[in-house]
Each structure stands twice: as C-alpha cells, then as structure tokens.
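Quiz preparation item.
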C-alpha cells in the first residue's frame, strides 16, 4: 500500500520561545559548573593486590581476567568517548558469587564497576580509573516463565534480543525494544531504566518490572524477585534500583511482565512538510488508532541524509523535511487494517502527510524500522558525536534542534533530531570532524539551560553516568539530590559501587 499527496508550504516552527529566557551562560549558576563532565580526582580506594587476585581466582576459577588485551573492550564505552584503566575483569555466574565478590571488595575498600552489555551512552558502564569490572555476561539463564501470566524471570546478563527470541516461542514479546537489543543486557536495561521504541504502548520499566534480586555493596542479597502484579506491603524497594545505574546495588535477576505477541503488525513510514503537521498527525493517530498504536517515532531530513550517505539506505518515500514511523500491533489484521486505512485517508485528505508507504510483511517492516533504528549507527560515521537525550513537552521537542542550529551556526558539521514523539523524548545529536572542546563549550550548558527553561529532563532514558552527573540540578531540586545522596550513603557507605557516576561531585 502506498499513499501520496503533495502539499506546498514552507517549513516553519511551531513554537518560538524567546532566547532571553534560555540564555544563562553568564549567570553564576553556569559559572559554578565549569567543565562539569570532566572526571573528578580518584577517590582513596585501595588498589588490587596479588592477595586480592588470589581471592577472586578462588571464587571465580578461570573467570578472573587480567590479560590487558581481553580487558581492553571492557574499559572503553560504546561511543569510545570514555576510557578507564581497570586491571581486573570478574565474570560471575551466580548471585552467590556476586555476593562474595562485593562482600570482599567492601571490606577491602575496592571500587567496583558493574557492567552489562556496555552499550551505555553517558560513560556509566566503564571504569573511570582502575575500578574492578564486574561483568554479568555469564549470568544469562532464564529462570522461569509463566505462560499464563506472561511473567518472565531471568538472570541479569540475558541479552534483550535473546529474551525476545525465547518468548516468541511461547507467543509473547518483551515489553521493551531498543536499537542495541543484540548486545544490551536486561539487568543493564533495568539499571538505566531504558525506554526504547514501544514505551508509548507498554510503558516504562518502572511499571513492567515486577521484582528484582539485587546484591548490595556489603554483599547482602536483597531478594525482592516478586512475580505478583499487586503487592502493596510497605515500600516498593525495587523502584530504587530501576534507573540507579549500578550505584546502589548490582542487579542479578529480574522478573518482568511480558505482553502477548501481536498477531497483526503494520508499520507506516510517512513524510511531513512541517513539524506542526507532524504533531497534528500524532494527535490524529492517537485518536483514530487508539489501542493498537504501539510506536510513533520521527526523524528529520538531516538524519535521512546520514542514512543515505553513510549506510546507503535508500529513502522509501520522496524527500521530506520530516519522517514518521508508526507501528500498530493488535490481534485482528482485518480490524487493524481498516483502522489504519481510515487514519491514512484522513491524514492525506487533511494534507498532514505528503508521501508514505505501509509494510505488513516482516522483511519490509524491518526495512522501514531500520530508517529509525540505524540513525545512531549512521552518526558514528559522520564524525565525533555529542549526544543528548532530552524529555520536553511534546510540542517543543524540535524547537530545541532549530535553536541549537542557530546557536552553533557553522561550528558544527551536523545537528540532527530524532526520537520518540509518543513520550516527548528527543535525541539531539551534534557532530564535528573531531572532538572539539570549543564546540562542546558552545553546546553545554546551553542545551541544559534550554531544557530546564521548558521544565524538561536532561536525561529521558540514557541516565546520567559520568558525563551528565553534575548537570542533575537542571532537572532535580537540591532537596531531591540531597535525599538521593543520603540513600546512596545508607546503601553504600564506602561508595564502592560505580563511583563518579550519577550523583554530582559536590551535592548541595
């Protein structure tokens, strides 16, 4: 099915916010946070001795790695922007082994960097200095699956895509889907509260995760691996660890509520002339597709250029300033097809879309999704990338891209925007031929001041990690950050778990 209609109109912005309300570069607040992404000084943790290695080798025979060549990939993040110097990689297989390791490290003041698939984008998954790397890669077993309730219980090191394949055999799917699904671990997904492509339909991990098993800094095992959808007995402790980025405990197992695999899936790729039309298409989409709408993603023409140039992906429709990926998923192809047809007719007759194509076959669905999922990959070929993961009121998300282009002028090679319209999550990416401190100084804190002025969040789904830790005050009041610091001090009084991450260097 292919729909096409032309509309003549100039590209214009939906919302104009005066720059004066966002420019605070000379304020005392900005002056205070000079170079906030730089690593702090190394804290007085112990250094690994031969005695320590002997203990680890006894607990993990053949799984205590000290070969520098084997350690190299675990010391560098996916973007190759953060590099640590960890000298020991530990690969436990059981919760008891994790418990023994943390109990020992806590008593000997050894810092630990928990690591899953190492697909993070904010420097949270690799050492800053010589922290011990604790990998969950070998903790990859499915523990149980209830085919009636759809509740999956598994170890933290299970790769997201492997879990998806496992569930498909029982006619279920995972409630989250990420571009990094072939590498990321479910424990890391939970630790960073990953959002992904279908949050619009299935919600966040704060809702779908039913229980966690976590090893605390002193080695105590917190067994909250519940499989109940309703459990209103006291504080919901698991919520503390969802999104805590390994700073409060090491997640070793997860129970998660999984939806049934839809019998009918359709993907639509549409083009819009303006972002205002894109937003109106979203409103129309919500109203007409309702319960079968599972994703509404967008990318701009600059993203399409990168896909064409670097990955040789052909544009499936004619050139447009903005592109939309809409996915529907339901139980009746006839019913869903009718609803989708009515939506497309209305979108075309209202001149909201200028061109489009629909896919119902799996191979074509994957091809259309690749236009959205592979933007990150295309950016890696364009130069050094500055990545920003922002939540904003949905009507303002692209204004940040427009204002950033104007703000940077020709100092940047590319300024592109894409993301999740359904939950107001913008991925702003800026590239330059090489790492450029002057360009970074022009981007930050401008991007965070702009976001704060709109009451947005400086991290929608990637976390704070090392890079964003000192920017937390743009999204959270000092009282909240102080309480977070108190919780960290209570659960990890020696600060051995993922130090230098998430919380600011000097909490107010």
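Solution:
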């Amino acid at each position: 099915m292919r729909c096409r209609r032309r509309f003549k109109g100039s590209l214009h912005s939906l919302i104009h916010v005066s720059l004066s309300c966002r420019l605070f570069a000379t304020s005392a607040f900005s002056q205070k946070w000079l170079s906030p992404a730089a690593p702090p000084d190394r804290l007085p943790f112990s250094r690994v001795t031969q005695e320590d290695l002997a203990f680890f080798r006894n607990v993990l025979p053949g799984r205590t790695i000290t070969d520098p060549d084997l350690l190299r990939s675990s010391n560098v993040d996916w973007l190759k922007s953060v590099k640590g110097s960890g000298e020991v990689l530990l690969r436990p297989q059981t919760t008891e082994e994790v418990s023994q390791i943390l109990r020992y490290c806590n008593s000997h003041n050894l810092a630990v960097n928990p690591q899953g698939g190492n697909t993070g984008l904010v420097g949270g998954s690799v050492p800053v200095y010589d922290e011990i790397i604790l990998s969950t890669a070998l903790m990859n077993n499915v523990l149980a699956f209830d085919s009636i309730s759809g509740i999956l219980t598994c170890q933290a090191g299970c790769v997201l895509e492997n879990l998806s394949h496992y569930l498909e055999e029982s006619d279920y799917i995972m409630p989250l889907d990420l571009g990094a699904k072939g590498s990321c671990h479910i424990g890391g997904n939970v630790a960073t509260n990953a959002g992904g492509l279908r949050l619009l339909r299935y919600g966040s991990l704060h809702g779908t995760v039913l229980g966690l098993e976590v090893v605390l800094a002193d080695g105590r095992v917190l067994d909250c691996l519940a499989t109940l959808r309703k459990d209103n007995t006291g504080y919901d402790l698991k919520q503390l660890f969802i999104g805590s980025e390994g700073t409060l405990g090491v997640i070793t197992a997860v129970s998660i509520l999984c939806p049934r695999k839809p019998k009918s899936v359709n993907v639509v790729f549409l083009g819009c002339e303006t972002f205002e039309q894109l937003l109106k298409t979203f409103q129309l989409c919500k109203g007409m597709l309702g319960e079968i709408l599972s994703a509404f993603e967008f990318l701009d023409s600059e993203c399409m250029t990168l896909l064409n140039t670097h990955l040789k992906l052909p544009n499936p429709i004619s050139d447009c300033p903005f592109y939309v990926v809409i996915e529907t998923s339901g139980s009746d192809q006839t019913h869903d097809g009718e609803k989708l047809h009515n939506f497309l007719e209305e979108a075309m007759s209202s001149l909201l879309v200028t061109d489009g194509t629909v896919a119902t076959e799996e191979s074509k669905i994957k091809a259309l999704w690749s236009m959205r999922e592979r933007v990150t990959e295309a950016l890696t070929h364009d130069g050094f990338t500055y990545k920003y993961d922002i939540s904003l009121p949905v009507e303002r998300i692209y204004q940040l891209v427009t204002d950033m282009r104007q703000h940077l002028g020709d100092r940047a090679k590319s300024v592109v925007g894409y993301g999740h319209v359904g939950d107001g999550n913008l991925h702003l990416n800026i590239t330059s031929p090489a790492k450029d401190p002057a360009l970074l100084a022009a981007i930050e804190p401008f991007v965070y001041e702009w976001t704060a002025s709109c009451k947005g969040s400086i991290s929608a789904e990637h976390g704070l990690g090392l890079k964003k830790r000192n920017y937390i005050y743009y999204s959270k009041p000092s009282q909240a950050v102080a309480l977070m610091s108190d919780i960290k001090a209570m659960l990890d009084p020696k600060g051995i778990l993922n130090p230098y991450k998430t919380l600011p260097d000097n909490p107010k």
